[in-house]
Amino acid sequence: MGIHYTRRAFEGQIKMEKQAKKEKRRLEKLAKKNAKALEKGLVEEPKNEDKGIPLDTVITLDHLTNPDKK
Questions:
Q1: Exposed e or buried b per residue across 12-45, where buried means at least 16 C-beta atoms within 10 angstroms of its C-beta
Q2: How high is the pLDDT of residue 70?
Q3: 62 conformational bin, left if phi > 0, alpha if psi -120 to 50, beta if neither
Q4: Got the DSSP string for 1-68?
Q5: Residue 10 pLDDT more than 70?
Q6: Could you tell me how far CA 40 lies from the centroid of its own chain?
Q7: Contact between residue 32 and residue 25 where contact means Cβ atoms under 8 Å apart
Q8: What span, in angstroms and rounded, lies between the C-alpha atoms of 58 and 16?
Q9: What are the tens digits of pLDDT across the range 28-38?
Q10: N or C: which end of the chain has fewer CB within 10 A?
């Protein structure tokens, strides 16, 4: 005879696999949508500008009170 498993025994595992597949499809669809928007020029590409103070400069009161002024 052998061991017979019921669906109920693996219910949690099956739910997790389905959720992982659904999330993967959602992320792929979102990436495709964003790529099309970038291609058409509807959305600008995010810029990675470093707005921090360089390590070799001394932080003064002027840096703290007027951070936009260079």
A1: eeeeeeeeeeeeeeeeeeeeeeeeeeeeeeeeee
A2: 59
A3: alpha
A4: ------GGGGHHHHHHHHHHHHHHHHHHHHHHHHHHHHHHTSSPPPP----SPPTTSPP-HHHHH-SS
A5: yes
A6: 22
A7: no
A8: 52
A9: 999 999 888 88
A10: N
